[in-house]
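Quick log. Single chain, no ligands specified.
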Amino acid sequence: MDILRRYLAGSALSVQTRKNLFCTLLKGKRPMVKRFTKFMLLLMVLSLVVAVPAGAQDEAPVLRVPMSPDPEHLNPFTATTIAISTVLNQVYEGLVGLDPVSGEPVPRLAESWEVSEDGLVYTFNLRQGVLFHDVEGVEFEDGDREFKAEDWIAAAEYSVTEDETVSSHPEWLESVVGYDEFLAGEADSLSGLNALDDYTIEITLKEPNRLFLFTLGVPGIPQEILPRMSEFANSPVGTGPFQFVEWQRDSFLELKANPDYYEEGKPAIGGVRYINVPDANTALLQYRENELDLLFSFPTGQRLAVIEEFADEYHEAPGLNVRYFGFKMDAGFFADEPLVRQAFAHAFNRELVWDELMEGARFPATLGYLPPSMPASTPAHIYEYNPERAAELLAEAGYPNGEGIPEIDLYVFSTAADELSLPVLQEDLRQLGVTLNIVVEDASTYWDHIGEDDVWFFLSGWSAGINDPSDVFNFLFLDGRDDTHYNNPEVNELLRQAMVEMDEEVRTQLYQQAHDLITADSPWIVSAYSKNTWLQKPWVDGFVPGGGGTYTARLANVTIDTSLLP
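-> predicted structure:
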């Protein structure tokens, strides 16, 4: 904290304001992982074989997992945040998943598939005997709970809509023949989807798409509940290894092992109890008292001490999350001010934040908009910390010493309100003559609000599910889809070419060109790249998250050795 005190010394803040700031910082909260990502991540984690005696689930212990904030809802069709994903990736499954280590597609509800030589026709062979969760309030036709091809096609067609309150995942099926006509209401069905029989689905694409299996996120959900999705938005019914039991907001959310799950011996635990923990200090205390089996966030200023205290229980792996401050690109002050956006990016001292103040919790984003492990991750221009260059750019834009720039509101979701990047960026911009106000908003409304035109500047992030540039660019920079509303036709064309380009070298060149154009436009201030870090009790085994974050771990693989329990 002495570093931050020295950094803010001489600022325009009053003594009392500084005291209030430091009291807030010393509370020791750490922000939650940011915005979520696409629902495909809910479905894409690998199974590991763990044997458990039949009928042992009732006696098996429950895994206790910290959760903050609560999910906004539990509707898979509008799931866009990590809080939602944390729960739903245990309840729902798609036709395929991804191996968290290799990132390659693996079977889920489809036990196998074939692709035609021209890459246009995918034939999925479904597992037989897969049952939907047995829950009250769902009347299955003839009492038949078996998942079949018509269930999946009904869910697929339900997801194709321009109404984002119904479904917000065009990436699932937009490459399928007939998508545009069905979306426009010119067809009664999606012509590229066909159920050849109860256990065979044929999907025809408009053109070859190397990413099709990676983005095919349609969940297995009973067609009987689709007309009543509003009733089941907080009580999901799927085919996954765990089924929903109870949710008491701001307290806990409980899942139990699915006794009918198709993978023999899984889950090996009796259920999962997500416990709402108000802050990182409380979570750490509960972990110390053995009231939690896992811990994902460490109190600010205590990270190194916690790692030392629990050295044998600490785990770390590179992540695929990018933390950033986004500019609204089609409305408000920043829309027509590229030099100002570039100046802000040069002004931010991200190394101070993440290497020193946050004790290495993340990697400072000293390259570009992609996680460093991805191809084309280093753009032609890098916005290194350079306050002198920032001042030059402001003057070039017609705002010497910040004169003429209005006060800027930076919107922040409530669980990140104490992130130390905020006072640092605020002070960095103050030294340029710019006033930055921090506006904290509850997460329940934040993610919808930041897409509106009245929000010009906001904190956000993205967790990719695979180590491929498409999993960032296609969701955040294609056709103005994300909350910045960034929409560059030249970038759009490059990204579409990359979708169908099978030559890896040529594809990387396309992504490099796109990355260079995006960074020149500067729709973000890139803050940090993630590390997946967590504490895990010695009696827990099989917790294997993917690069997207700890929430991607498939808890059906987890075991608890009761002989080691205290």
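Residues 1-55 have pLDDT under 50 and may be disordered.
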